[in-house]
Amino acid sequence: MQALYAQLLVGLINGSFYALLSLGLAVIFGMLNIINFAHGALYMMGAFVAYFLLNLGGINYWWALLLAPIIVGIFGMILERTMLQWLTGLDHLYGLLLTFGIALIVQGVFQNYFGSSGLPYAIPDQLRGGMNLGFMFLPIYRGWVVVFSLAVCLATWFLIEKTQLGAYLRAATENPTLVRAFGINVPRMITLTYGLGVGLAALAGVLSAPINQVRPLMGADLIIVVFAVVVIGGMGSIMGSIITGFALGVIEGLTKYFYPEASNTVVFVLMVLVLLVKPTGLTGRAA
Amino acid sequence: MPDTAIAEAPARAATGGNILQVRNLEAWYGESHILHGIDFDVNAGEVVTLLGRNGAGKTTTLKSIMGIIGKRTGSVKFNNQEIIRATSDRIARMGVAFCPEERGIFSSLDVRENLMLPPVVRAGGLPLDQIFELFPNLKERLSSQGTKLSGGEQQMLAIARILRTGASFLMLDEPTEGLAPVIIQQIGHTIARLKKEGFTILLVEQNFRFASTVADRYYVVEHGKIIDGFSNSELAANMDKLHTYLGV
Fold first, then answer.
1. How far apart are CA A181 and CA B101, in angstroms?
2. Where in the cell is it found (chain A) (predicted)?
3. Which residues are paired to B212 by β-bridges?
């Protein structure tokens, strides 16, 4: 039974990363119509920025949680201003190829300087140790990752679904020309939205650093599963991404317990089944 | 349709002064040359209607003024400021509001969010209670999804949301298209009241009967050019010509 709970916890932690990353992808796809294949590389950059801040600047984990998303978000906004914005109105394939190319370049540069092995990033002192819950031992840092990710996901959902700024974003997704004709600077809003999505990826990278170490290919390993999560949840659906992210993490964890051989493929099998039954994803709307 | 007067509406415009001046306006959709030198004026406080057949260039004229058409040349002056090179968000913030032909109601937003979407660009916009006086249906449907409204209600919502913004110059593109006669009448009453409140309105209409109930002046657009223009008092004398222009 202990092993089941342990796998559930691992599933929830993976689900936290899936949710944060797929949320960023959903925001970017929903608002910019870009399938952002650079997302994994930007997640990796978040972890590396945290590593640099600690080892070069002596800036701790808590500051890294704030600074890394801002720094990588600004990098993302530069990418959007200089490259992605020119793809407006073109086929999805162009955005996919461009962001895939960016991902390869970024990962290649980091691999060139840091190799493929992981760099250590220590768990902050305040989150070391664990708690005995009676039925299982809960490492505090892992519990923190789940709770903090959930809080960030819900805050992002609230921002997009329940605020005036979110209404601008949702409206601009449907008809950017008209929203601009209402007096809203849509190009600036798109840049900031891309920065927000990228910032979420970087945040996931910082959270991941103490668990998974800091590796140039850490994002490449994860991004394919995250894309499956987004497809299952429904492209562009905010709540769909959050729920599906956590749910698939848990399903993956349970599969590891009950039938380990299928744990690496269960997400993709589910994706195929969902696409067969509901091609727009569980919560997605038809175009 | 309640007939309560809109209280303390600010004098938006002293009738007579030139608010919009369009000269030699040309516009393109990609390689297609749509407008071939449009010239007309709109004076403050007027309702001016652009008439013409389908595809004559009426909607393109509005979109060009609003800065939505990518390639446009000539001169468009709003309150004596040149706006031909301005972006549409800047034009909106100068006090120009646009209600598109397809209404542009957002399906991911409820009625309240649709109504509150356009930002207030200057003081003097209608407060919500006055908007609900004009369009009582909207108040009852605030939490409905925008696109679940009937065609008439969607049109009311599309007009209502630009009245909040403080824009003094409204461009309405075929506000009666596809609506039942009773709704058309209601839209007509609304436009008449807005005019009384000092709004300046540039209207595109194919429904000539409707336009004749609200317009002060008419311009006829054909093949991307203004080919005629007359005031409401000259309407009777121009009816035959108008029938020929519009093919009715």
1. 14
2. Cell membrane
3. none
Whether A106 contacts A38, CB under 8 Å: yes
Chain B residues within 8 A of A167 when measuring between CB atoms: 109, 113, 116-117
| Sign of the Cα pseudo-torsion (B78, B81, B87, B89, in order) | negative
Distances (CA, A) of B246 to B49, B207, B239: 14, 10, 10
As a whole-number percent, the residues of chain A with pLDDT over 90 amount to 68
The answer to the question of residue A52 being in a domain is: yes
- Contact flag A181-B113 (C-beta cutoff 8 Å): no
Total domains in the fold of chain A:
1
Give the separation between CA B83 and CA B243, rounded to whole angstroms.
34
Which residues in chain A have their CB less than 8 angstroms from residue B157's CB? Answer: none
Contact B131, B115 (CB under 8 A): yes
Q: What pLDDT is attached to residue B75?
A: 96
CA separation for the pair A89, B30 (Å, rounded)? 13
CB contact under 8 A, A168 and B113: no
Contact A195, A246 (CB under 8 A): no
pLDDT tens per residue across span A78-125: 999 999 989 877 888 999 999 999 999 999 999 999 998 899 999 999
Residue B185 DSSP SS3: helix
Query: ipTM score of the complex?
Result: 0.89
> pTM to 2 decimals?
0.85
Give domain status of residue A180, yes or no: yes
What's domain B46-68+87-246's superfamily in CATH?
P-loop containing nucleotide triphosphate hydrolases (3.40.50.300)
**Domain enclosing residue A94, as ranges:** 2-222
C-alpha to C-alpha distances, B46 to A11, B163, B200, B210, B231, nearest whole angstrom: 66, 16, 5, 16, 11
Q: Interhelix angle for A164-174 vs A140-162, to 10°?
A: 70
Buried b (16+ CB within 10 A) or exposed e, A125-164: eebeeeeeeeebebbebbbbbbeebbebbeebbeebeeee
Per the CB < 8 Å rule, is A181 touching B67? yes
Ranges in chain B, pLDDT < 50 = 1-11, 14
Q: Which of B27, B35, B18 is nearest to B77 (CA)?
A: B18
Classify residue A281: in a domain, yes or no: no
Rounded to an integer, what distance in angstroms lies between the CA atom of residue B104 and that of residue B109? 11
